[in-house]
Design goal:
Helix content is about 10%, strand content about 40%. It is mainly beta. A hairpin with a 2-residue loop joins strand 11 and strand 12. Pfam families: Flavin_Reduct (PF01613).
Length: about 200
């Protein structure tokens, strides 16, 4: 099978985000004049080591935000955001925070998620997340398409939950790494293997 996206794929569901999988989920918390917001994004990844940098993309709109969603609008306002890493054990809380609530209504409160303060930025984070990355936005880029935005940030602080550090490594095998597979599918990763790069 071959298709060109502009001509359609002819399948019952768009295969694109299932092809590029598994994808980590950036559970993005922001703070703006409307209050605190929390939302998951599966177009998310780390992009550099030194200094550590991350990106996520927002690909939809809300009726009360016109060309974007609450996360991007609040980052444009504040210049900061926090990336919370949800474990598979937190899948229901993560999913609950994806509800399209009106701007100003906190997903922390609506989904019963405990918030904690960040240390290097004025933003809330998910208190029980295995890891949280405090970030200063470096750039917001308008992508091709009606509502596609890329947010880039440099990491200014890292929180690691104590029980997720084992033998000097960040390790989520107990709870499982939560990943997006496409469609409505997710996966929990509990097993790892190592490979040495050729010298």
């Amino acid at each position: 099978m071959f298709y060109q996206p502009e001509n359609g794929h002819g399948l019952p569901h768009n295969p694109f985000n299932a092809i590029v999988a598994p994808r980590p989920i950036g559970w993005i918390s922001t703070r703006g004049t409307d209050g605190d917001n929390l939302a998951p994004y599966s177009f998310f990844n780390a992009v550099a080591y030194t200094p550590p940098q991350v990106m996520f993309a927002s690909t939809n709109t809300k009726p009360d935000r016109q060309t974007t969603k609450d996360s991007v609008a609040q980052i444009a306002e504040s210049g900061v955001f926090c990336v919370n890493i949800a474990s598979a054990a937190m899948k229901d809380q993560m999913n609950a925070s994806s509800a399209p609530l009106p701007a100003g209504q906190s997903e922390f409160e609506a989904a019963g998620i405990e918030a904690a303060p960040c240390r290097t930025i004025d933003c809330a984070r998910v208190a029980s997340a295995p890891a949280s990355l405090e970030c200063r936005m470096t750039r917001i880029v308008r992508l091709a398409g009606e509502a596609n935005w890329l947010v880039l940030g440099v990491v200014t602080g890292v929180h690691l939950r104590d029980d997720c550090v084992r033998d000097g490594r960040f390790d989520l095998r107990g709870d499982g790494w939560l990943t997006r597979m496409g469609y409505k599918d997710y996966a929990a990763i509990h097993e790892l293997f190592e490979m040495e790069r050729p010298q």
